[in-house]
Amino acid sequence: MTTNGGHEPVFCTVVPPHVLDRIAQNQDPALSSAARRTLERDAWERTHRRMTTVVGATAVAAPPGAASDQPQRTIYDAKHGTTLPGTKVRAEGSEPGQDATVNRAYAGLGATFELYLKAYGRHSIDGEGLPLDASVHYSKDYNNAFWNGEQMVFGDGDGEIFLDFTLPIDVIGHELTHGVTQYTANLTYFGQSGALNESVSDVFGSLIKQYTLGQSATEADWLIGAGLLAPRVTGTALRSMKAPGTAYDDDVLGKDPQPATMADYVRTGRDNGGVHINSGIPNHAFYLVATALGGNAWERAGQIWYDVLTGGDLDNDVDFAGFAKATAAAAKARYQQGAELQAVTKAWETVGVRTT
Asked: Least enclosed by CB within 10 Å: which of 143, 146, 154, 312?
């Protein structure tokens, strides 16, 4: 059984290192320079996060008297610098301003808070009303968004490959869900447990988008980061849960490397053992469960995944098989021997993972 008392934070970005590495090698400096700067910033932030973990991060708590059923959002403007959080530009309850990026970040934090509260009774990221802070306009042409263990950070993109990272609401939900995982299952960010960490963020990022748009499982596009890629890029999104490996096929980005089943599992030492690549397998399993059950995916399918994430029974380094078994157990515990258990069992079987 895991011990999650430490809530160890990790530095999690939405754009995988292998994508930025590919762009950084491009002969066109208009493309490669922004990618290289992004990789350098990511490396610095990752090191800083490790040091903060050792020294101890500043404790953040809900303000006295704050309503636990209301978000406490603060948006900061980094003004293309790298000092966080930056200048405060919007507080909870204030009216929208002229900066669309600020407004989108504010709305995305609120949508994430609402999904977790309304669907699962969870009060913010930590379950106890944690304030939601975000910084926008981070660095120059920064091609990423990240959760650093304490807050959200959004780049504006370089305009050549990536657009503003506040555009897709599922990117916001994805990164904030890394915070939820940090406070619950605390999945080790390496190998299959790391891929599950990424997959859980994709799952709930997609559910936040579907909830906000009022889409059923069959109406949803099941894309992560749709609208993020610039017009010159041949692709639709960063990842596809419906059809992993098909999100993009571009002369600059290369081809989407995500597998949909264990038959194509990628063994690599890069990207913490391929956490952004092999997440396609559990992603596809969730898609299969959600579409088999129909209706709103955040209800039965999402509830099963949420029960597993928050149940306290996962080892930090759980593999796909262990997680699959946990979803089957959660489905049975909540819904008995019904369609939910059948959908879970069949989905994992389809992607090549046993639940028994």
From this structure: 312
Q: Answer whether the bond into residue 85 is a cis peptide, omega within 30°.
A: yes
Using alpha carbons, select from 43, 130, 139 the residue that is nearest to residue 84.
139
Which CATH entry fits the domain spanning 191-350: 3.40.50.1000, 1.10.10.10, 1.10.390.10, 2.70.70.10?
Answer: 1.10.390.10
Q: Outline where DSSP puts E strands in 22-156.
A: 73-77, 87-91, 132-136, 145-147, 152-154
Contacts of 91 (CB under 8 A, 6+ apart): 73, 74, 75
Q: Decide whether 12-183 matches 191-350 in CATH topology.
A: no
Q: Which amino acid, residue 115?
A: L
The pLDDT of residue 3 is: 39
Residues annotated as part of the active site: 175, 276
Domain range list for the chain: 12-183, 191-350
Assigned token pair, 187:
């999945």
Half-sphere exposure of 270 (CA within 13 A, CB side): 9
Would you state the structure tokens that stand for residue 207, as one six-digit string?
């559910």
Cα dist from 19 to 32, 115, 166, 239, 274, whole Å: 11, 30, 19, 12, 12
The position carrying tokens 């904030």 is 176
The two tokens of residue 38 are: 């992004």
- Residue of 120, 239, 143, 128 lying closest to 179 (CA atoms): 128
Tell me the two tokens of residue 302: 């999402």
Sheet holding 73-77, edge to edge: 12-13, 145-147, 152-154, 132-136, 73-77, 87-91
Q: What is the pLDDT of residues 161-204, one digit of tens each?
A: 999 999 999 999 999 999 999 999 999 999 999 999 999 999 99
Coil, strand or helix at 134: strand
CATH of 12-183, picked from 3.10.560.10, 3.10.170.10, 3.90.78.10, 3.90.700.10, is: 3.10.170.10
pLDDT in tens, 130-168: 999 999 999 999 999 999 989 999 999 999 999 999 999
Whole-number CA gyration radius for the chain = 19
3-state secondary structure of 153: strand
